[in-house]
Amino acid sequence: MEQEYQKVWDECLGFIRDNLTGKEGENAFATWFKPIVPVKFDGNTLTIQVPSQFFYEWLEQNYAEVLKDAIRLTLGPTACLQYSIVMDKSISDSPITTSIPSTGRQSTINRAKDAPMNLNRNDRTDFPNPFVIPGIQKIRINSQLSSSYTLSNFVEGECNRLARSAGYAVAEKPGKTAFNPLMLHGGVGLGKTHLANAIGLQTKEFHPEMTVLYVTSEQFMQQYMDAGRNGTTSDFVHFYEMVDVLIVDDIQFWANRGARTQEAFFHIFNTLHQANKQIIITSDKAPSELQGLETRLNSRLKWGLAAELLPPDVETRMNILKQKMRNDGVVMPDDVIEYIAYNINTNVRELEGALISLMAQSSLNHRDITIDLARQMVDKFVKSTNREVTIDYIQKVVCDYFNIPIDSIQSKTRKREIVQARQLTMYFAKKMTKSSLAIIGLQCGNKDHATVLHACKTVANLAETDKQFSLWIDEIEKKLKD
Fold it and tell me: Which residue from 87, 92, 114, 307 has the fewest beta carbons nearer than 10 Å?
């Protein structure tokens, strides 16, 4: 025979379900009401058991009105709702009860013998302020953010403008933009960790009252495993659910491992997102390219904005070097900066590493920073990083060879010397890079692929019929390979 308290609670659930409308209402009902278990009914007071302190607080903060209406509609205006909050598997024989008569609700905390609480049995509070268990409402958390990774020293360029702009918008209104989650993705050393940290720091500046937490995916997984071994998984989950802005770095490390970690994060993600709290994630791949993550978790990553950070162009690389020099109080000739920027083109980390190596060479050997010293250092550095010739570098070599401004290749002028330089750039770009004809044309004056093909054929024909032109090709190619 069905217990009377179950019948009463089923009636309450029917009312609650009817009042939580739409897809969000269905999710809220499944997340916050299905786990509730009725345990007792004495004719006027229904006792329900909830899984944790956090669960209780969330109900009181977000669903107190609908619970009050449901219990009074089912049992009458004098009815009471009593909570039994499970805090540990080991339950004390003498639970602590605190009544809240103004709302018609009572809270019973089943306390573990080894976990005493500083709670006055006669505490009172008025609706709608929730009954708060000490230590749970708001705690100070070390954000784990690096103070050196700020937006002010994050150099903006075409390669990262979307990501940076979205990050600033998130910092202004965390959890209240369409960029939730904000996923920053791109190759190694392109600034994902820097930008994620910078967003966190900017958020704390705009909203000092908010709790911001940065954690690597490896840290999160290790913490979850430790919590499982210590029997504190519930505390682990509740801790993360209290964070206002959660930043998880390098989520790709969960691929093909940590199924339980992924499941825990999935539920934390849902809780934070539903509460309009901000989630920021970094990865080396876009969500559609991430293999080995649970399907439902991967689908969540696609809810907001996936912003890609691309390798920096030559202008951005030069600005990065200048920013680094300003921060370190270093001065060096413009031609040295330009040489490094054109020759180290893989990522920001290696670019800064090359600059540090050059400064070390100069300081330790008591030598001036010159183009010759830069060339010696870069030659060694590039060999260890497998440098690839880029379109930017080809443009510079060709323009230097003919002593013309580099931006002339981007212009629409039909002057003979500019046209020839542009055609030679296209020719070597097709021969020495992996770029498509469309990309080559785009970077050489916004030309189409047919123009690139025509330029390559023209250069090949002139190389066979014009000795001067053939000499130019040989000398430029030698400079490109040096």
Answer: 114
Catalogue the E-assigned strands of 51-123: 80-86, 96-100, 105-110
Over residues 290-328, the pLDDT tens digits come to 888 888 888 888 888 999 998 888 788 888 888 888 877
Instruction: Report, as an integer, the average pLDDT of 202-212.
Output: 93
Q: Which residue among 292, 309, 326 closes a domain?
A: 309
Q: Residue 422: which domain range? A: 391-481
Q: Which of 392, 96, 56 has the alpha carbon at shortest distance from 234?
A: 56
- Residue 424 sits in the same domain as residue 343: no
Domain membership flag for residue 97? yes
Contacts of 183 (CB under 8 A, 6+ apart): 280, 281, 282, 283, 286, 287, 301, 304, 305, 306, 307
Q: What is the pLDDT of residues 347-403, one digit of tens each?
A: 777 777 778 888 787 777 777 788 778 877 776 665 544 456 778 888 888 988 898
Residue 365 sits in the same domain as residue 453: no
| Residue 149 within any structural domain of the chain | no
The pLDDT assigned to 101 comes to 31
Average pLDDT over residues 459-466: 89
pLDDT, greater one: 443 or 398 = 398
- Output phi, psi for 305, to 5 deg: -115, 130
Please state, in angstroms and as integers, the Cα–Cα distance from residue 268 to each residue in 86, 234, 274, 277, following that order: 19, 11, 10, 11
Q: Are strands 96-100 and 105-110 parallel, antiparallel or unpaired?
A: antiparallel
Alpha-carbon distance 421 to 426, whole Å?
9
- CB contact at 8 A, 435 and 391: yes
Query: Is 338 found in the same domain as 243?
Result: no
Question: What are the DSSP calls for 79-95, one per residue?
Answer: -EEEEEEE--SS--SS-
Residue 446 sits in a domain whose CATH number is 1.10.1750.10
Distance CA 203, CA 323 (A): 23
Q: What is the mean pLDDT of residues 253-278?
A: 89
In a domain, 155, yes or no: no
